[in-house]
Amino acid sequence: MIMLSVDPAARSHADGQAVGQLLVLAVALVLVWVVTRTWRRGPAPDGPDDVERTTAVAVRRGNIVRGVLLAIAAAGLIGIFTGRGYQPAAEAAPTAQKPVAQSPSATTGPPEVKRVIEAAPSVGEYRLHTGEEAAEYERLVPEKSQTGKQWFYDGPGEGPVGAWLQIDAVEWDARLSEITSPEAASGVLRDFFAGSKATEVTDFEAGPWGGRLSCGYVTVNSGRQVACAWVDAATWGRLALMDEKSLSKAAEIALEFRTASEKRADQ
């Protein structure tokens, strides 16, 4: 279990909590859209003359669900960014400190990694959504949680979305190195899971790329699911698994997603 101290006055703590809460909100929106798919399609037409009526019913139901999703998203974002979910404290005034000798690795930043990060077409039992179907799910994700790149996968469960993968990399945003340093890695994971209100958060082996990997249970409208997150000097990844119930199995799946989507020159 992760049993680390939390500084609620730190800006990084507020940022991490906001990201975690956005993950839960986005998963909830996608699930609402998925579970209402049959209802939104409306009744099947009785014949050629009935197509216009059934199409109108489907359009009307689709607009109703979109309105509900917008209301949920608006309420969630307001709660996260203006309420208790996001309250960064004012920056403390700088204090004089004695100079401390630093090793070369601490002053030169993380080493450059030659790699390619892209979605794997399949990862175990999970298959990547593409085209209009993928775009449909992306439109449901609140804009503020769309950092880095994200992909949706079909999974072994009954729902059309079994996994939601998000990856941020220093190649896309150099500022990411500020939160992925070895000193900050544990705080990033801790604050992420605190924001998600995750339980039973557990550390696991991070795999060949190193860094840290943790998984925990989060609760959404459809019940309890698993969220995993990993961080190293150049990457910040999150994986939501809609159907998995075991933390250890989820950690194995997270490692499969991590290695499948990140190809390094030394492979």
Mean of pLDDT: 74
Fraction of residues in H or I helices: 25-40%
Q: Specify the number of helices.
A: 7
Largest sheet: 8 strands, antiparallel
By helix and strand content, what is the structural category?
Answer: alpha+beta
User: Which strands sit side by side, in order, in the main sheet?
Assistant: 2-3-4-5-9-8-7-6
The total of beta strands comes to: 10
Classify the beta-strand content into a percent band: 15-25%
List the uncertain runs. Answer: 1-13, 80-110
Q: Report how far apart the termini are.
A: 32 Å
Explain the overall architecture.
- The strands form two sheets. This protein has an eight-stranded antiparallel β-sheet, with helices on both faces.
- The chain has helices at residues 11-35, 37-41, 51-82, 104-108, 131-140, 182-195, 247-261, and strands at 115-117, 122-123, 126-128, 149-154, 163-169, 199-204, 212-220, 223-231, 235-241, 262-264.
- Helix content is 40%, strand content 21%.
- Helix 1 runs antiparallel to helix 3 and helix 1 (11-35) crosses helix 6.
- The two termini are 32 Å apart.
- With 267 residues, it is an alpha+beta fold.
- It is elongated, with a radius of gyration of 21 Å.
- The longest helix is centred in the first third of the chain and has 32 residues, at 51-82.
- The chain crosses the membrane at residues 18-36, 63-81.
